Fold:
Amino acid sequence: MPRFVIPLILLLVIGVFAGRQDTANGALQQGLERLKALDYDAAIAKFNEAISARGGKFAEAHFEMGMAYFESDRNTEAAKEFDIAAEQNPEEPKFQRYIAEVALFEPDFQKALDAYERYLDAMGPRDADRAEALKRVSKLRMFALGTYEAGVEDRKVQFLSNPKPVYPKSVKDNITGDVIVEAVFTADGDIFGVRVIKSLRKEFDEDAMDMISRLKFKTAIKGGKPASQKQKLKLHYQKIFG
Structure:
């Protein structure tokens, strides 16, 4: 074989590989745009394109596809994608975090605990979320051992506070409307994944998210066990004159 042929073959291989990388990354970005627009099925299709372009090995695309399933309340499919993402990249903390959060909907306390401990292990010693993670691991260890209030009937999340939206002082215009916020109220008493799914304006959205993040609640009960539950909450804003 002539000497110039081998470098030419290598260049062709590199070019094909680079082309696949570009295709995968482009599909991932398109999927993220559709996910942001809450077009979940279109996002999932794009994430599948990205994964196919990488020959099935694309942890970030599997994770984002899991997010599309999770945000559209398809937890079984979400759990599968988060598991694959974690298998392909065990060192990424957020993959373990979401495995744990989905497990708490069942609830499967042991799976949630195992994933949360891996999440903790993957963190750096000075990570800002480390103290909170340690608290949650402690609670999940108790739940995994069966240490929780028994004999409680199944119920939805019960809110113990009902704060009223306050019109932001920084908004001088007379704007009336609603912000709809979605959040997961977890089995161990945390509030996770707060996001706006119907926006009014940035100032109102931020106020609504802050308010939901501070709600007091009793956890949902499923099968006699504390369980995570997702809720959508509408906050109405109206300027009061006088």
